[in-house]
């Protein structure tokens, strides 16, 4: 990992001033000469910095007057709406999300030019070179790794490394308690199977990621969708009301940090109240913490599990989005259901392959992991902002947008008459894959939303794709208006 | 893979004559001079061959008379018994195999000196060097393999290679239909979830491998144990009777080839009748074909799926025991439930990691795979025979033994008063791990059985371990006799 060049460091300094409002839109930047004095840099560094920020859309050059802070276009987009009042609760619905998902997934499985449907970053955002080197050296170090029986209970080194990393999110646990899984998705399956049965009702955020709805349907469980705020996450009032209304809720599943698709982050006070509420009602809480390491800032948000005193919280996490999308590594802490979950894991898929576990263990134990995360967060922040600019440029008036404090996606609300399925189909014909909002609920409430990936380097091609998408949305908005006029 | 040396080729020739009875016990071998003439080999080669067969226990040297064919000790052990008449059928039992298995597995998870509990061969029986080289070269060829999103639907090359290999067991299918899983165990989970629900009854072989009993229990399904012959597999009469008696059997699961733990191989006519029977009763048949490539002979047995005309057979298999115990690769063909199973697989664990799939794909496409299997079968045959010799030498009278036509285990019936749990405990105190018969049924019927692994090179240490085991069994047999006298 090379250190950022001088001009990039300087740019970060001014960007941060702009983001925090210290430098407002229309403000004049210090002159190049002034910059040289202030920061003791060369002319060329000062100029490079200004040109860079201009290219990134944060400054504009006015002839003979110097550089001025510019309003990013995305400011013109309205933020995502808060959900309807807490009293509105969907009844448990079970409309066959499988079929929807299957048909969308099947179509999305051919290679496309621009893939905006992913929930991971591009391959080169992850430490591919280091992981590859680790793989080769581990294969040399353990020549029988691929043909010897996998060590029972999961790889010890990985479990220790994960237990140590859990401290960063406020969880103190031990290697023995870590259960390594095939991604967070297996962890969610195991957690749900441990606490509930077919026919039971499970409270989930709304919107929530289709993977969870699919797991519930495949297990014969019913999703009860609880209104969720794009800024503070699941509505605790709505959840409490739901618990009073339905007596067969057998678990609550939440993604407290960088919720998929909203990107919301629950305030600590909410997480604490949620843990207490579930505890009081004797309803297990399943925490899906797949994304927290991608939250802005140097301190990873504290897990809800941190406030768990009685083992009522099952903690599920993943390395898939933060370390290596090519490895199927997730992990969990089973709380009161630890023994049951361990056994289910063994009965379901046995233990994970050793090589992947060792690669991850070695990398997690090193400071390279911290460096990787810092760099990844910075890159993603830039890319989210550029995507937002692009969306603001090309999407029609009335579009709303979340700007999450981290993560790999933004959540776009299109004009209400635009169907995300129609956008999906039209975009695919132009070799662009998007993730339509209809996947994120058993209801039709999010049919005019799109989740767009920000994990790819913002290129000319990507900008063009946003142009194409914008036109598709615009056309659909007009046709619908005419049809209904 | 190097070609066998001349003396080993010659030894194989005579071994085969002995096995087929062309050379009977007590027969005199051709003299060394005669061997030289007959096979046009040197004196040293002829001598090496005789000494090798002597060391392996097949010949004995009599002073001044030459070499004579010797009766292997194991001939003195009675073969495994046929099951009780078909009329005896256990009611569906659900005694909590999980607990038994958990406690046994937990104890077996610390490293031991001699591990006879495995269902795989030793690491060096598999092509570790070639697989390692493949891994390194694939990582060079695809530098982003570990950090890019896994290709949806499973790796195409592996699916093609498996579809092609399926021809060897008489199944004609296409790459599209192959579902890659985390070992055969995940395939069994998916198959059962696709065709049955909690509370349903599933007919299984008795004894059967504990993994299956565990899967059933974890899914809330009930095992109906059908008597199974050590030579011809599941009793079709008993199964048919069960189908008449119970109207809630929702699936039949069988391991037609090298059944675990019996080692039985169903005759083709039985497999065909089984397929027809399940079809007629409209009960899905789940075929677990994990071991067929380890069956003696150059022709892999034909899968029951071969006779399936209507998609009523779900075929599950694995590379775990035949190619690489370090890879968690299984696969399946979903028959009529293909779409449902694909979706369940996606919802349960997503797709398998790409690197492992590519390693396996590349190796399966080469003739190295065939050479590996041939060598593995030969090695295992020798090792099974030596284990049988050892058991015959050290175990008490009244011991019975299966001698399966392939595979990695033998199934030992001890005197009826000996508890396999007691043997397990005593052996573990001496750092030897065995697989106790009580794991292989929800009943107590196999409590005086052991499954012993033959996948490890027969060493002096291993022989000593068999000596220790023999004494343990002998002691337990005596104590029990005294106690009951
Ligand atoms: C919130 C959330 N949980 C779990 C998963 C699945 O994670 P994994 O790939 O680790 O199985 C995803 C993937 O999209 C996700 O967004
Ligand atoms: C008959 C049988 N089926 C399935 C399995 C599990 O296979 P895998 O390791 O491929 O998951 C085993 C392993 O012992 C087995 O003996």
TrEMBL record, chains A, B:
HTH gntR-type domain mapped to chain residues: 4-72
Keywords for this protein: Aminotransferase, DNA-binding, Pyridoxal phosphate, Transcription, Transcription regulation, Transferase
Pfam families for this protein: Aminotran_1_2 (PF00155), GntR (PF00392)
UniProt cross-references to Gene3D superfamilies, sorted A to Z: Aspartate Aminotransferase, domain 1, Type I PLP-dependent aspartate aminotransferase-like (Major domain), Winged helix-like DNA-binding domain superfamily/Winged helix DNA-binding domain
SUPFAM superfamilies on file: PLP-dependent transferases, Winged helix' DNA-binding domain
Database matches in InterPro entries: Aminotransferase_I/II_large, HTH_trans_reg/aminotransferase, PyrdxlP-dep_Trfase, PyrdxlP-dep_Trfase_major, PyrdxlP-dep_Trfase_small, Tscrpt_reg_HTH_GntR, WH-like_DNA-bd_sf, WH_DNA-bd_sf
Record flagged with keyword Repeat: no
GO molecular function: DNA binding; DNA-binding transcription factor activity; pyridoxal phosphate binding; transaminase activity
Protein name according to UniProt: PLP-dependent aminotransferase family protein
Taxonomic source organism: Undibacterium jejuense
Protein family per UniProt: In the C-terminal section; belongs to the class-I pyridoxal-phosphate-dependent aminotransferase family.
